[in-house]
Amino acid sequence: SSNLAGFNRGAALAVNGAGLLYGDAHSAQPEGTMWLNQGTFGADTSIHDTSPEITFDLGSEQVVTTMKVWNYNETLAGREDELLGRGVALANVLIAGEDLVFETLYEFLELDRASGDATVDFSQTIDMQGQTARYVKFEILANHAGAIFGDEFGSDGFQNFAGLSEVQFFGVPEPSTYALALMGLGTLVCLRRRRRAA
């Protein structure tokens, strides 16, 4: 994926818990707490990202039972539709092992729009079906402001951003290790970018 140039909204912020200030409630302030792609922001069209995706590296192959997603939660009075609209509305979720050969786990997975409320847990829990994976990829198809990404790209009027606040992965213990309580915090995020031809 791309990261929004000139801002502190890199992909690693989607897994480091920086915005979880009140238990499972997530901040509504994006700087240093959320991931946002480049979209079509800025004059340099060579860095525009109209096919956003983000890939999470769990460090090794793990049995993953659930994934918890907090959608992009930035909001300001009078700009709720625009800013909360940056959240992911529709995505394909793919998984891969050490070989990086991805298989689709979910097609057209719908994600709820964030609440904009920094005092409540608005996260969404996704069943990962006990799949073994090292990598989990979101191919983002649409945001909540109406942008359709990829080959059918259509503008949302707001720079076509896509973002997430936090993603955590939960699994089961392996015979040779202690219980895997949480893989989301401290993981590395692989950044991959698919570009459209200008």
Structure commentary:
- With 198 residues, this protein is mostly beta strands.
- 3% of the residues lie in helices and 38% in strands.
- The chain has one helix and nine strands.
- A hairpin with a 6-residue loop joins β5 (88-96) and β6 (103-110).
- The longest helix is centred in the middle third of the chain and has 5 residues, at 80-84.
Rg from Cα? 16 Å
Order of helices and strands: EEEEHEEEEE
Shape: globular
Name the structural class: mainly beta
Assign a percent range to the helix content. under 10%
Counting DSSP E segments of at least 2 residues, the number of strands comes to 9
CA(first)-CA(last) distance: 17 Å
Task: State mean pLDDT (0 to 100 scale).
Answer: 89
Biggest sheet architecture: 7 strands, antiparallel
Total number of helices: 1
**Per DSSP, what share of the residues sits in E-state strands of 2 or more residues?**
35-45%
- Uncertain segments are 176-198
